[in-house]
């Protein structure tokens, strides 16, 4: 895998996180190409990708109209990370530049395999993936569905690339809206909880810097425990002493409707993903 070329088309928050994670896992920078739109983003990208990025070839579609086409030439895999409303046009524009065997991996929310396949051409191997930004530190959750033309070898390559930045799960495409609501957007929910804990800590009299550090370290530490033992209920119970302090907070969360609220939030997310599928698919 390390000798193969991997190209990132649209290297912002998400594709940038995957590229950084891939480079940090030991993938050679000389085999990575990355495109962005603006000249400014192109200039800033190497620093954003981290210290292992030296040698990554960066292209800007603002500077050069055929930047994306050049960047995919000879690539074994191309990860498409532009916005959902742009992805089909960008993919169509790459059609003639892609090798027949190049595996195209879309990370866009709400864009179906069917639409991707039509934009890429019916024989092109195409994968729809829903990653998340912890990929940047090798701790992503990445779910994917493969199109019908993807061979076992191509799936293995895709799993190697995605597996370098986190845990990979193959899912039915019908599950993608729900997966987007759970793991795709999920890091934002954990960050929101950390934000709320910080603010509440300040209300309780802790100064801002300390509240920020305690909230962030606590959520990160809880994540590290979950990584060792993926049973949130057990871990919660281990903190909650009968008749103690945590019990009062958990009761307040539950009486406030945290379960229903979470379901409502994730349902709204999945519905938006389904609506995008109607809006952007061709
Ligand atoms: N953010 C997340 O947590 C997740 C995002 N996704 C999906 O990832 C995709 C990207 O989202 P996100 O990373 O947040 O968005 P960003 O805006 O951070 O990144 C988009 C990138 O695409 C570049 N770009 C735009 N047009 C072109 C073009 N024509 N050619 C080359 N590059 C181009 C932008 O360059 P420039 O900076 O110059 O504008 C930017 O680097 C979306 O489809 C989203 O659904 C999926 C899972 C999680
Ligand atoms: O908010 C979004 O639309 C993207 C998809 C999942 C996470 N971020």
From TrEMBL:
Location of the protein in the cell: Cytoplasm
Main location: cytoplasm
Domain of life of the source: Bacteria
Binding site for NADP(+): 9-14
Pathway(s) this gene product operates in, as recorded in its UniProt entry: Amino-acid biosynthesis; L-proline biosynthesis; L-proline from L-glutamate 5-semialdehyde: step 1/1
Role noted for this protein: Catalyzes the reduction of 1-pyrroline-5-carboxylate (PCA) to L-proline.
Protein name, per record: Pyrroline-5-carboxylate reductase
Lineage: Bacteria, Bacillati, Actinomycetota, Actinomycetes, Micrococcales
């Amino acid at each position: 895998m390390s000798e193969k070329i991997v190209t990132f088309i649209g290297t912002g928050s998400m594709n940038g996180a995957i590229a950084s994670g891939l480079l940090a896992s030991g993938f050679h920078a000389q085999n990575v190409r990355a495109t962005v739109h603006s000249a400014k983003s192109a200039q800033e990208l190497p620093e954003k990708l981290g210290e292992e990025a030296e040698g990554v070839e960066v292209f800007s579609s603002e500077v050069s109209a055929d930047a994306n086409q050049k960047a995919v030439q000879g690539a074994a895999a191309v990860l498409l990370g532009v916005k959902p409303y742009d992805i089909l046009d960008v993919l169509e524009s790459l059609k003639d530049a892609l090798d027949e065997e190049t595996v195209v991996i879309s990370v866009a929310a709400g864009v179906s395999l069917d639409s991707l396949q039509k934009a890429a051409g019916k024989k092109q191997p195409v994968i729809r993936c829903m990653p998340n930004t912890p990929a940047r530190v090798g701790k992503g959750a990445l779910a994917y569905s493969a199109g019908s033309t993807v061979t076992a070898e191509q799936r293995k390559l895709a799993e190697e690339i995605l597996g370098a930045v986190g845990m990979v799960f193959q899912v039915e495409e019908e599950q993608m809206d729900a997966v987007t609501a759970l793991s795709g957007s999920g890091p934002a929910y954990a960050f929101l909880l950390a934000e709320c804990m910080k603010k509440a800590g300040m209300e309780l009299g802790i100064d801002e810097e300390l509240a920020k550090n305690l909230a962030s370290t606590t959520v990160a530490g809880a994540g590290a425990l979950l990584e060792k033992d993926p049973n949130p209920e057990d871990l919660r119970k281990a903190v909650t002493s009968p008749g103690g302090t945590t019990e009062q907070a958990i009761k307040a969360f539950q009486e406030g409707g945290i379960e229903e609220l979470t379901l409502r939030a994730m349902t709204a997310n999945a519905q938006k993903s389904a609506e995008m599928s109607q809006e952007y698919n061709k």
